[in-house]
Amino acid sequence: MKLSIITINYNNREGLQKTFDSVAPQSFKDYEWIVIDGGSTDGSRELIEQYAEHFSYWVSEPDMGVYNAMNKGIKVAKGEYINFMNSGDCFASPTILEEVFSTAHTADVLYGYMTRGTLDGEVNNLSMMKENLTWIDFYRDGLPHQATFIKRNLFEQLGLYDESLKAVSDWKFFVEAFVYHKATSEFIPKKIAIYAEGGISDVMGAEERKRVAKELFPSAMVEIIPVLETYNRMQRHKLTGRLYAFADRLAKRMERRKT
To answer: Would 56 disulfide with which of 21, 32, 98, 209, CB 3.0-4.6 Å?
Structure first.
């Protein structure tokens, strides 16, 4: 099986219906759909039961938070790639999965564009929506899991999401995968998903990420970031890549001197 779609939900029946209306009509059919509900009391369970024939696996029971629910889904997934399309979020079109998987892929992570609110809305995480990503990009931001397809065996290699975190465990996973384990990636320049704003990462992600960043990034790397902020306006120019490469070498050199 090519793809496992994992949807987590808690008391968001309306959002779950929206996600269902996005996934069910997909022209691509080589996927399984896993729904992890946290014991909702708003009618979500009844909706899941109504559509049960569309799911390869579903459960409705109390959990210990977003990443505990996502990990439950990973543990039962069988697809080569995993996508997290949580309740309220949706795919950008009924053909997008077919467009993505119409060609063979070998990269650990596939990623594309995600918009906020509507198909024509603001493109989220624009800084991450480019072909070549650096550690500096991951320090600043993260890949949106709605518009990302992660090889299942990457979780087998690196472990599941850190359940001690409330909002940035997926970001931490990507940092460890790309910065420290040299995971491979492929940019797909298509609108993959539409993000429903107001999630937990919007509410409490910034402060938690600052704390976790201190653990993930060596001090020399962090020290070079303010210098690079001067060149934000140059991100679309070829010089940016050279600056990033130079900063990467400089940060590593500084770190070696400290040790």
So the answer is: 32
